[in-house]
Design brief:
The structure is a homodimer.
Chain A: H1 2-20, H2 31-44, H3 49-60, H4 69-84, E1 88-101, E2 105-111, E3 115-117, E4 119-121, E5 133-140, H5 143-147, E6 158-161, H6 172-177, H7 179-190, E7 195-199, E8 225-228, H8 230-241, E9 247-252, E10 255-269, E11 274-284, H9 294-313, E12 320-327, H10 335-343, E13 351-356, E14 364-370, H11 376-386, E15 392-393, H12 405-409, E16 414-419, H13 424-427, H14 440-459
Helix pairs in contact in A: 2-14, 3-9, 9-14, 11-14
Amino acid sequence: MRTIKFLLIAGSLLATLSSVHGADKSLTFAKPDLNAAKTLRERGLADNTAWRLVESLTTEVGPRSAGSPGDAAAVAWAKREMQSLGFANVRTMDVTVPHWVRGDAQFAVLSPWPQPMPVLALGGSVGTGAEGIEAEAVMVRDVAALNALPAGAVKDHIVFFTNRMERTQDGSGYGKAVGVRVAGPSAAAALGALGVVIRSISTSDDRFPHTGALRYRDDAPRIPAFALSNPDADALERQFASGKPVRLRLWSTSRDLPPARSANVIGELPGTDRAAEIVLLGGHLDSWDPGVGAIDNGAGVAITMGALHLIQQAGLKPRRTIRVVLFANEEFGTSGSRAYLAENQAEADRHVLGFESDFGAGPVWRLSSRVNPAQLPVVDQIFRALAPLKLARGGNEAGGGADLDGLAKLGMPVLSPDLDGTKYFDVHHTANDTLAQIDPVALRQSVTAYAISAWLGAQYPGTWEKVATPKAPRR
Amino acid sequence: MRTIKFLLIAGSLLATLSSVHGADKSLTFAKPDLNAAKTLRERGLADNTAWRLVESLTTEVGPRSAGSPGDAAAVAWAKREMQSLGFANVRTMDVTVPHWVRGDAQFAVLSPWPQPMPVLALGGSVGTGAEGIEAEAVMVRDVAALNALPAGAVKDHIVFFTNRMERTQDGSGYGKAVGVRVAGPSAAAALGALGVVIRSISTSDDRFPHTGALRYRDDAPRIPAFALSNPDADALERQFASGKPVRLRLWSTSRDLPPARSANVIGELPGTDRAAEIVLLGGHLDSWDPGVGAIDNGAGVAITMGALHLIQQAGLKPRRTIRVVLFANEEFGTSGSRAYLAENQAEADRHVLGFESDFGAGPVWRLSSRVNPAQLPVVDQIFRALAPLKLARGGNEAGGGADLDGLAKLGMPVLSPDLDGTKYFDVHHTANDTLAQIDPVALRQSVTAYAISAWLGAQYPGTWEKVATPKAPRR
C-alpha cells in the first residue's frame, strides 16, 4: 500500500511539473469557471438547503431500511424533493431489495454475574427461535484467533469477539475491524458455534450497540449474531476475567421476508456542449433502522442534492451533465448501485467522473482522488479552488465508496472530498444516528466542497481519462 | 436566595476575622491533624480502592432498583466489601421498599409522520394495559403552561411537556426542570389527559431517554408517563410544527409489585475520645434499572467507602466515629434514609456532621457547607487543607442531598465537597450510566476531598453546633 502511494505521489509531482511548465493549455480551467467556483463558495457557506433536506428526511421519514415502509416513504420523499428543487429528468429506477426485519432482541449474562445488556442483531442475522439460545461463551479477539483455537473449542458454545475498532480521521479503523462482523458469524458456525456476539464496530464509549450487515457463507449453518456496545463488551470481558464459566442467553425474532421493491431516485442538471458525459454525485437513500439515518446517510443525500441545487441556483450551466443518484439499499448488499450499473451497462463509459457522499456530515478535511495519474494536475487545480475551505491534499488511492464500486472497477475516475470521520463511528449504525449529531456549519462546508469540485469536474476542458490501475480494496 | 447568600458570606467574613485575631483556640485544628490531611492527600491521589469498588459493583451487581434481585445482590455485595475492607460494626438495617417493575415500553408517532422512538417509562408509572393508548397529543412547555390552557384542552389527549433542562456545574438546572417529571403526570390527569410524555430531564443530545420518579397525587387518576430523549423530543416538536394533528401511541407493561425487603448497609471507623459523636458519610446503594448505576450512585458508594478506607489505611484514629451508610432506595422515595432516621430517632443528635455523595464521580470543584454561621471559620480551615485539590469556596447553603434531608432538617451540620455536575445529567438515570463514564483521576480526587474533610470534621476540637436556619429546598 505504501509503495503504491509513493509511486502515485511521484507521478503526481512529475505531472504537476509538466503542467507548470505549461505544455497543455487544455489541462487548465477557464477563468470564468474558476470565478464561478468562488461564487459557489460564497453562496454555499450561507446556504441551508442541505440542512433543511436532512431535517425533513429524518423527521418526515426517519428509519428506512431496505424493504421497510420507511424505504418506500424515502423514495417518495426524494422524488418529491428533487422535483420541488427543480432538478431535471427526475425519475425512479425500480430495484429489488432483500427485506430483513430486525424484530426484537435480548441479551443476558446468566453467570457468573447475571445482567441484561442492550444488544442489536447484526443485519441479516437469523433469529434464535422463541426459546432463545443458552450456552457457555468463548472469548476470542478476532477470526484469526478463533481459527487458532484447538479443535472443538467452540462447538455448542457462543463465540464472543472482543476486537476493538481504532479511531481515525479517514475511517481506516473501520476496515480493519469490520471483518469480525462480516465474516465472524459464519467462521464461528463452521466450527460448531451456536451463536455469536461481537464488540460493536464502534469508537464510542456510550451504550449504543452498532449494527451492520453480516455475510453468511453457504458452507456453514446460519447462526444468530449480535453486537454489544463497547462499555458492555468491557463488562463482559470483566466477567470472563473472573475465571469462571460465562453463560449467556441470546434471543431475537429477526427474520427474512420476501424481497421487496425499492428504487434509485435520480435527478440532473443537464449539460451543455458535453451533455452526454455524466458527472455522478451518488449517495444511498436507505438507512439502518435503529436510528433515523441522519449521518448515515441523510447527510450524504443532503450533500449531493444540496450541491446540485447550489450550482443550479447560482445560474451555472455545466458543460457535462451533473447527475444525483440516491441509491437504494446500500446497507444490506448495495442492491441499488448494482441495479444502476446493470441498467447503464451500455452507458457506463459516459460516467466520466464520480463522487460519493456516504461518510457523515463533514466537514470535508481532504481532497483525494482516483484519476489517471497524468490528470493529477487537474485535481491539483480543483484543490486550489477549494483551498479557502481549509482542506489537505490527499492521495490518488480514493476508493469512492460502496455505491461507486462497480463503476470505479470499470475505470471511472473518482474525486473524493473526504468527510472527517473522527467521530463518525461513534454514531454510525446506532440508535444515536439523529439530526442532533449534525453540525450545520460543517454540513454547509461539505456541500460547498462537493459543489465546487463537481462543478469544476463538469467544466474540465480536457477529457477525463479512464483509470487503469487496479482499484484499492473497499474501505 | 441571593440575600441569604450575602448574609451568610458576610457572617463568614466576620467569623473568619474573629478567628484570625485569635480569640478561640478551640476553633483551630491541631497540627498533627492537619499533617494527617496531607498524608491523606498524598495517599488518596494514588489510591484505586474506589475505582475497584465501582468496577466491582457495576460488573458483579449492575442494575439494582428497589426490590429487584439486583437490590438484594447489592446489599450482599456492600456488606461483603465493607467486611473485606476491615470496617468495624458492619451491619445491615432492614428497610421495606416499594417494588415497581419497569417492564417494556413502546412509543410511536402515528401521524403526521409515523416513527417509533425509544422511550422509558417514568419511575412509578402505571402501565397502559395490553392495548396501549392512542390519542392526539397536546404540546405544552411545563405545568404552568398546562394549567393556563383553556378548559377541556387536554381531555382525552396525551400531554407532551417540552421544557428543556439547562446545563450547570452545580446541578441547579435539574431542580428547575424536574417539576414536570414529578408533578406533570398528575397535573395532566387532573385535567382529563390519558397519558404524558416529557422531554427527558437531561442535558444530553444523545438518544438516551432519562427515567426518574414521578409522584402521583391522590386526587387525580394514575395515568402512564414516559420520557423521550432530547433529539426525539426535538423531532416530535418538529412534527407539531407541521401544524397537523399529532397522534401518538403509548404502550407499557410497567406495574407495582408488593413491597419488598432491602437494607441500609452500615460500617464504621470507631472514634476515640468522642466516639459517641458520628460523622456520617452517606450515599445510596440502589440505582435506576436502565443503566448499571455507575455515576448514580456506584461512584457515591465508592467515594464514601473509599474515603473511610483511606483514613483507616493511613492508620489514623479519628476522635469522632466516622460512619458510612449506604442507603436503600433513594431513587424511588428515600425509603432507606427514612428508615435510618426512624431507627435513630433517639440518637439523631449524635450525628454531628454529615456528608452525602450522590452527584457522580467528580472531580470535587467546590467546598460548600451548611453549618452554624459562627463555625464557618472551621469550614475555611478545612477548605485550606483541601486547597491543593483546586477547589472553589462555596456558600453555606448546601442542601446535603436527598438522603441527608431528614437529619439536616433536624439541624445536623453538613459539609459538601461539591462534585462537578456539568456532564452529570448527560448520563444520570439513563442506560448510558456505565463505568465508561467515570474518570479514575477525578474519582481519586473526589475520594481524597471527602476523606480529608471527613477526617478534619471528626477531629474538630470544638463542638459542631446545630444549624438553626431553615434548610434550603432540595436541589
